């Protein structure tokens, strides 16, 4: 998912529309905007893309000085309008709109506890859990209730919360999911999953929200706090850098494009192949393919083109839909690959659906050999923090060795980036690489005890 928030801007609704639109790649199931005008918060939301769920003419006329926006793809909770965000709730503290990216590992158990205490849930998202925790907190003020509730959440998350008084942003204690702070020329603060959202509204990137940090933005400016005292080790999702985030976004001071190119360079050193041309899978693998070509001295070319109107395939909820989406999505450029030994670079291989199809496409277009190179390590462990690869049974590298995967995808050779290569490419400490077998930063069974509720 993608979250956006802005406070203190007369064009809050329209800017949130554009900001949320720039995060479209993070979710295509539903989109929505909550806008604060005087003491009222109203929500527009719908299924599908931002342009389907919202109308720009309408948003440009919506009056308000603060807003939050959301794009969703489901990791937990089904794809339906009740689960579309922002959620709007009324608690004893007043109105509250809420947008979330990520996944709670204790979402289910918190929900069960809350239900046993009488909470009634409208949908099936984790985000509603936070709202109910706040509503049922014994703390006297909204701020303390929010803080206490955030403390109970385990997993990878970034939240934006809008009340008639303020905009809040919070990020999980490990910083697994990203959240950044920006500022417009006029001084209004913005929160967004990725810095690309600042660029589209003419704002600048200020910094990343810290793991475990809670910020409050209101008429007095910005205030920073922590909802957990103890600092945990940072573990930003490596997959954001590998695939998920846009190439023009920066995270923790690094450009995702530059990191991807570096991963391709390291891959070329680790796993060279005799070939004539290097081809990347558009769009997310182009930087890695360019890096591979640079380091290997082979020419890079566009051997595959993408129909940009087909949504990201993994977001399609079933395997059958995913397969037909993959078919529609990419075509081979015959004149680039005909009679050539092709190195095909992809950023990741999760289920293998994409790779198998692409190898076939290249062969049909006349490639004499296809050498598959993956710019991340074997994806062996399901993600529990908000990237949708949840079922272990579907993960190719969990169930097959590399030779078996090579046979399945039909390539002449197959090699992955090593875990050490990934670490070198990412350049700093502090990454979650759990899906590559490096261990889960948040234990999956950890379940904090709920305090007594009113
Ligand atoms: Fe990202 Fe993988 Fe960690 Fe999930 S398990 S947060 S996809 S690095
Ligand atoms: Mg891809």
Automatic annotation (TrEMBL):
Keywords (A to Z) from UniProt: 4Fe-4S, Glutamine amidotransferase, Glycosyltransferase, Iron, Iron-sulfur, Magnesium, Metal-binding, Purine biosynthesis, Transferase
Cofactor: [4Fe-4S] cluster; Mg(2+)
Top-level division of the source organism's lineage: Bacteria
Catalytic machinery residues: 1 (nucleophile)
One Pfam family from the record: Pribosyltran
Chain sites annotated for binding Mg(2+): 284, 346-347
EC number: 2.4.2.14
CDD domains on file: GPATase_N, PRTases_typeI
Involved pathway(s): Purine metabolism; IMP biosynthesis via de novo pathway; N(1)-(5-phospho-D-ribosyl)glycinamide from 5-phospho-alpha-D-ribose 1-diphosphate: step 1/2
Cofactor details (free text): Binds 1 [4Fe-4S] cluster per subunit.
Group of enzyme by EC: transferase
Function: Catalyzes the formation of phosphoribosylamine from phosphoribosylpyrophosphate (PRPP) and glutamine.
PANTHER family: AMIDOPHOSPHORIBOSYLTRANSFERASE
Protein name according to UniProt: Amidophosphoribosyltransferase
Organism in which the protein naturally occurs: Sulfobacillus thermotolerans
């Amino acid at each position: 998912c993608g979250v956006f928030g802005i406070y203190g801007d007369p064009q809050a609704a329209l800017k949130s529309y554009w900001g949320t639109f720039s995060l479209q790649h993070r979710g295509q199931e539903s989109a929505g905007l909550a806008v604060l005008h005087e003491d009222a918060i109203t929500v527009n939301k719908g299924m599908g893309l931002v342009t389907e769920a919202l109308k720009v003419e309408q948003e440009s006329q919506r009056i308000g000085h603060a807003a939050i926006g959301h794009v969703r793809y489901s990791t937990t909770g089904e794809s339906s309008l009740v689960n579309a965000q922002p959620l709007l709730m009324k608690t004893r503290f007043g109105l509250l709109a809420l947008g979330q990216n990520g996944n709670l590992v204790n979402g289910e158990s918190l929900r069960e506890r809350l239900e046993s205490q009488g909470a009634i849930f409208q949908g099936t998202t984790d985000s509603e859990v936070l709202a109910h925790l706040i509503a049922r907190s014994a703390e006297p003020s909204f701020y303390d209730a929010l803080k206490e509730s955030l403390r109970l959440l385990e997993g990878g998350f970034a939240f934006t919360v809008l009340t008639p008084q303020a905009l809040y942003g919070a990020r999980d204690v490990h910083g697994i999911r990203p959240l950044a702070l920006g500022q417009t020329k006029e001084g209004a603060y913005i929160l967004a999953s990725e810095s690309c959202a600042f660029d589209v509204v003419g704002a600048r990137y200020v910094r990343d929200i810290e793991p475990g940090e809670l910020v409050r933005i209101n008429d007095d400016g910005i205030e920073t706090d922590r909802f957990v005292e103890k600092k945990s080790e940072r573990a930003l999702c490596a997959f954001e850098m590998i695939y998920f985030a846009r190439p023009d976004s920066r995270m923790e001071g690094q450009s995702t494009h530059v990191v991807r190119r570096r991963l391709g360079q390291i891959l070329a050193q680790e796993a060279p192949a005799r070939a004539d041309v290097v081809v990347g899978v558009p769009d997310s693998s182009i930087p890695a393919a360019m890096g591979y070509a640079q380091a290997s001295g082979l020419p890079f070319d566009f051997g595959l083109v993408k129909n940009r109107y087909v949504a990201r395939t993994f977001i399609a909820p079933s395997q059958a839909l995913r397969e037909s989406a993959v078919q529609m999505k990419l075509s081979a450029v015959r004149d680039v690959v005909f009679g050539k030994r092709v190195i095909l670079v992809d950023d990741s291989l999760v289920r293998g659906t994409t790779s198998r199809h692409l190898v076939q496409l290249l062969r049909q277009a006349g490639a004499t050999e296809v050498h598959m190179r993956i710019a991340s390590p074997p994806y062996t462990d399901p993600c529990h923090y908000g990237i949708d690869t949840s079922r272990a049974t579907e993960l190719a590298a969990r169930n097959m060795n590399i030779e078996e995967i090579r046979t399945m995808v039909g390539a002449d050779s197959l090699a992955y980036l090593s875990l050490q290569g990934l670490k070198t490419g990412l350049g700093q400490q502090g990454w979650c690489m759990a899906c590559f077998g490096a261990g889960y930063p948040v234990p999956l069974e950890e379940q904090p005890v709920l305090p007594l509720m009113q």
